[in-house]
Amino acid sequence: MAIEDEVLRRIRPTPEQRERVDRAAKAILEAVREKAREKGLDIQIMLVGSVAKDTYVGSPDLDIFMLFPPTVQRKDLESLGLAIGREILKDGEARYAEHPYIHGTWDGLEVDLVPCYAVKDASELRSAVDRTPFHTQYVNSSLKEGQHDQVRLLKLFMKGIGTYGAEARTRGFSGYLVELLILRYGGMREVLEAASSWRKGETLSLGERGRPFKDPLVFYDPVDRDRNVASALSVNNLALFIHAAREYLSRPSLAFFFPNERRPMPLSQIRDVMKDRGTELLVVHLDRPDLIDDDLYPQVRRTLDGAVDLLERGGFVVYDRDFYIGEGIQMAIELERAVLPRSVRHDGPPAWIDNARSFLDKWRGKGLSEPFLVNGRWSVMVSREHPQAVGLVLDRLGQAALGSGLRGLEGLTAVSGEDALVEENRRVISTLLDKRKNWEI
Amino acid sequence: MAIEDEVLRRIRPTPEQRERVDRAAKAILEAVREKAREKGLDIQIMLVGSVAKDTYVGSPDLDIFMLFPPTVQRKDLESLGLAIGREILKDGEARYAEHPYIHGTWDGLEVDLVPCYAVKDASELRSAVDRTPFHTQYVNSSLKEGQHDQVRLLKLFMKGIGTYGAEARTRGFSGYLVELLILRYGGMREVLEAASSWRKGETLSLGERGRPFKDPLVFYDPVDRDRNVASALSVNNLALFIHAAREYLSRPSLAFFFPNERRPMPLSQIRDVMKDRGTELLVVHLDRPDLIDDDLYPQVRRTLDGAVDLLERGGFVVYDRDFYIGEGIQMAIELERAVLPRSVRHDGPPAWIDNARSFLDKWRGKGLSEPFLVNGRWSVMVSREHPQAVGLVLDRLGQAALGSGLRGLEGLTAVSGEDALVEENRRVISTLLDKRKNWEI
């Protein structure tokens, strides 16, 4: 327990931090109320999220919700909500999740000012944000003395191992999910102990369960029993959390909460690793389109899947792949080899099928062999259209399944072998090759 | 039809040939009868096979059967039969099919003297040879005027394209099957026309059909309706015959009956072909064990299948393979590449399975990467046990499924790449690379 005490000592908000956060929250709430009064609006103003729940770690976002009556038109809700937000946050800018809100800063703290509908219960939701106030109320009325710190511990553990955050970039555990896990099991240790024997498809709840889900982990939302709070969690992050829980319980360490920074491998080390393995890297670059992360990451994953599928159908053996999004998009694919023989066996119909003749007419005297029979089927050695992985990707990636924002393949380049082992690819190659867990760095 | 007339002109036995064959047959039959009388044996002596049926091509074997009454003990039948055979054929030697017989020569003709049982009908067979007299009687009583020449034509066509002979070496059409096909369809052209639209699993008969068979071609034996006369035929030879039939009908040529000799490719040409393809050859040699062809060929095929399976399980991509049996056994396998990367991805259990820990304990810090998660399963890059096809075959072929006569792997050698392209491998490599049909040479 000494480790967890030490972690809490480091992350529990100090009285000064608390005071600053509370002051800012109070001031914004007051300012929003004033604005609403000015505009003659009958709306409820509510502090939600981790500050309202006292479960934040580090410098928190302030989430202020403006709850409009359901009689207000959606259009008016959006324009009024954005107007208030802009007037209060000097540097505020509109952002768009399921519907728009204003993001800005106040006294150095990140602030979201979000308009939503004040619905009576979760069955009447008009959009996902309408659910947030219910979550805040649920957690606030359920968390017991001391559990706030347990939430903080588990959040930091999740951050440390790299599974915190439900956004598309991470595909991990949301803050609300962490809170529900603490409510379900009591404390961080208890969550880790339970997770040690979780299986894929583990199904949890704090009350009634609704329709079945097929996600890697299911946690029925206590305020909306037909929603899986863990729907964003990837199977890899579930596996990683299970693994980390077991590791931590057998060898607790501060490194799970405060991992060292991961540094890209030096090129010389990359060369050594590749020489040891005898495999080859293919690195594909694309320009980064003007998309928010929640759109960009899924599209990059789809594009990388498409590239891997393309390569495999082209006869290449893919060992591993990963991507890194910085100024541009970089995808690294480890191949058994990046250049295949110039020929390939092309299998045709059985000899007793009527269109055997057209296969023979097509290939007689034109292949790298005469047609020959294999178990009664015609085959012929033919020139491979794309013996080079680079050529295949450059020529055909446009036809592979791609995210709409990447369909133009702006800035596409591809290199393999020694050409790939250059400074600008160091980061993505490190992402691929460095398989240490965060707490092992 | 001019081509078939020309073929018949060349192969129909001349009066001098006929006279010689008939004289020899008569003399042996008389000699055997005399011997039987001397020994006080009450046996029937019968000329069977293609001479008896007048369907032979070229210099025929003389097949003389000695039909013993079923009351004679098997042991006595064998010893008496072999004794008579040895006394008549000065150079005779015992051979063993399902039971023993004497093979020798008489006046320059090959002769088989075969003891068998005189059974009343095919349902009482004691061994497969007992069926032969029934076959001879059936064909003799069924073939019409002119059909003998049609049998000769189809036999020579089968020989020319390489599908004649039911023995394990060839896995083609037996002489009896050729005769039945002529009886079924009338003449050679009619057989080829029918074969043009055969399918795999084609089922033919000249009377009652017995139990079902799953062979590529089924022809119910008219003297034993539960036997498939075509059981030895491989699917490739069925396909080749269907193909040759179509080809011949659209472009008849003497080359189908009298193909040119196939010559091994010069090494320089082999080098050019391999350079064009960019693939690599693996050539495996084994000593030739002291086995008859009917045992040897299936064992070599099984061994080659085992080697291919071994290579594929080892990560090698096999394009093609073939073998040649001369003084020794040579097997050639065309590979995408003969050397693989030194590493391979080794996939383990999902992270939520209990034995995930033992996978991690085994590989942590010991692989070519740390263990990493792929769709929730642990994987790790490890050293490949056999990056070289040659090493894999030398090390493991002994564990692959092998024919019993080859299990010792006497004289095993394996070479690949440039080392394989040497004079002594020219023959087997040509067998693999030269995909021209016999009539295209």
Question: Could you describe the 3D structure shown?
Answer:
The structure is a homodimer of 441-residue chains. Chain A folds into four domains: 126 residues, Beta Polymerase, domain 2; 110 residues, Poly(a)-polymerase, middle domain (Orthogonal Bundle); 129 residues, Alpha-Beta Plaits, CATH 3.30.70; 41 residues, Alpha-Beta Plaits, CATH 3.30.70. The longest helix of chain A is centred in the N-terminal third of the chain and has 24 residues. In chain A, helix 2 crosses helix 4, helix 6 packs across helix 7 and helix 7 crosses helix 8. With 441 residues, chain A is an alpha+beta fold. In chain A, a hairpin with a 2-residue loop joins strand 13 and strand 14. In chain A, the strands form four sheets. Chain A has a five-stranded mixed sheet, sandwiched between helices. A four-stranded antiparallel sheet of chain A has the order 10-11-9-15, sandwiched between helices. The first copy, chain A, has a three-stranded mixed sheet with strand order 6-7-8, covered by helices on one side. In chain A, 39% of the residues lie in helices and 21% in strands. At the A-B interface, helix 9, helix 10, strand 12, helix 12 and strand 13 of A face helix 9, helix 10, strand 12, helix 12 and strand 13 of B.
